[in-house]
Every structure is written in C-alpha cells, then in structure tokens.
Amino acid sequence: MCIFLPDAHDGLPNLAGMISSRPGFLHEHMPKTMIRVNKFRVPKFKLSFESIIVTILKKLGLELSFGDQADFSHM
C-alpha cells in the first residue's frame, strides 16, 4: 500500500488536483524501492467510490461476462 501525503499542512486539495489532472502523477511519484517506516498510524476511515463498472468493463472487452451466455457455475 502506498499513501501519498501533501508537503504542506493544508495541501490536500492541491495534491488531489495534481493526482486527478496528471495521468502519470502516481506512477512518477511511486518509490522505486521499499521505504521502511518505523511507526506509522493511519486513523480509521471509510472510502467509497461509485462507478458504472459494467460499462467500463465492456469497453475494455469483457463482454461475455455480462451477456446471456455468461456461465459462472464453476466458480
């Protein structure tokens, strides 16, 4: 898991803007090697995300899973 934190105390909106507007931002800033952290605590939080995933998956070519011929009986 990677956690990205802003440099400034009030920099979260700016960081979120850079992540959403620059497609390669996360890849460019991903550490090349593992970074050890002695003690690191993350407060409990909830994350939610909504998307029309079926439409996205069909656009990516995964159409059989959502058609009449879909067979998940061996799962």
TrEMBL record:
Belongs to the serpin family. One of its GO terms (molecular function) is serine-type endopeptidase inhibitor activity. Residues 1-75 form the Serpin domain. PANTHER family: SERINE PROTEASE INHIBITOR, SERPIN, SERPIN DOMAIN-CONTAINING PROTEIN. This is Serpin domain-containing protein. It comes from the Eukaryota. GO terms for cellular component: extracellular space. Pfam families: Serpin (PF00079).
